[in-house]
Amino acid sequence: MRTIKGLSVPGKVPKHYYNITADLPFKVSPPINPATKKPINPEELKQIFPKESMELEISKERFIPIPEKILEFYKKYRPTPLIRAKNLEKKIGTNCRIYYKYEGASPTGSHKLNTALAQAFSAKKEGLKGLITETGAGQWGSALSLACKLFDLDCKVFMVRSSYYQKPGRKTIMNIYGGHVLPSPNEETSFGKKLLDQNPEHPGSLGIAISEALETCMKLENYKYSLGSVLTHVLIHQSIIGLEAKEQLPEKADAVIGCVGGGSNFGGIALPFYNTGAELIGVEPESCASMGKGEFKYDFGDTAKITPMLKMHSLGCEFVPPAIHAGGLRYHGVAPLLSAIKEHGLMKTEYYNQKSVFEAGKLFAETEGIIPAPESCHAIKSVIENAKRRKNQVLVFCLSGHGLLDLTGYEQFLRGELE
Ligand SMILES: Cc1ncc(COP(=O)(O)O)c(C=O)c1O
What we know:
This protein is an alpha/beta fold. The chain has 2 domains: 8-13 and 80-109 and 238-414, Rossmann fold; 113-225, Rossmann fold (3-Layer(aba) Sandwich), CATH 3.40.50.1100. Helix content is 40%, strand content 17%. The protein has a 7-stranded mixed sheet, sandwiched between helices. A 4-stranded parallel sheet has the order 8-7-6-9, sandwiched between helices. Helix 12 (264-270) links the parallel strand 10 and strand 11. The longest helix has 17 residues, at 232-248. The chain starts with 7 loop residues before the first strand and ends in a 5-residue tail after the last helix. It binds pyridoxal-5'-phosphate (PLP). The site of pyridoxal-5'-phosphate (PLP) has 21 residues, from helix 6, helix 12 and helix 16. Pyridoxal-5'-phosphate binds next to helix 6, helix 12 and helix 16.
């Protein structure tokens, strides 16, 4: 067992990613073609996604080496700190030990850069000109814009319209890295135009932004689509979070907690703890609880129904969630890998309302000093509730990002105007 003197634990950057599918006692249902209802040939998906991402998607290898070029950049900000939240523990009067893995320490402020670097590296190796994507709160768009700049690729980002106006700073960050950002829905695509004709004030959703990114991708030569969550290859890239945390933790974890949008930071921190006896808990917003309230079924990943169908917990691909500040959690579905894990009883889910998660975020800022992203506040709320209920346990959570660009949400909260 590791002993620590301070509250932040040193560690090492792993040289491989972890792929839980090598260890699961069941198969995750494959994506299907909506017309034939037959599994999609991964070769077909390589026309849309970078080839290497699709190879990883179906890999059965347990440990996947991280290319040297990616490791080189990871080492600029990894291992991210694992910190004991002693002040928070004291404030809530728990005898549980709470640790958080701080992914906000990355250059773009969240865990998203872990997969962005890997995907941009694959795209460059394949000789692509650029990547096209969607973003909710702007964290993913910032990460991909930076990764594309580092590998000399173009980056075009459809940003959910409600977040585009709530978080203008994020757009500036993407622009600094050379990303080209459009609010979604957008007149530039036929799907976006149709939605704006129906409702010029349309708030957008991740499902819609995905449709627009895909539509654009299909029109452009030598550009491919990059997804910041949901698919297995993204969760594999994010496993670096949990692998590091496992090595850094001075004691055995009883529960590992993360917020769930598409599922990548939760999958990243939690899945490497599979089979260690720790409970894995995913936390969602009450207003968009795909796993908590959705149906486990084949559904489209986007709103225009362009994607293959994925077997996942879904609120329906046409569901437009309310414009909560945790823009990165406004997705109707979730990673099929996590859905299958939940169906087999290997993880639990919780959901909380927006006001209660901001209260938790403020308490965390007051005690630990870091202002958390509204998405991460969901994990904090859960950790507080679990720490109050449990006795003498070890709780670990992913602090997936900082909230320094989410101050509009905090301002509304402080004024008592949050619903
Ligand atoms: C800080 C932060 N945390 C969590 C998420 C949710 O995504 P995922 O479930 O893929 O981790 C996002 C998405 O944008 C995010 O920006």
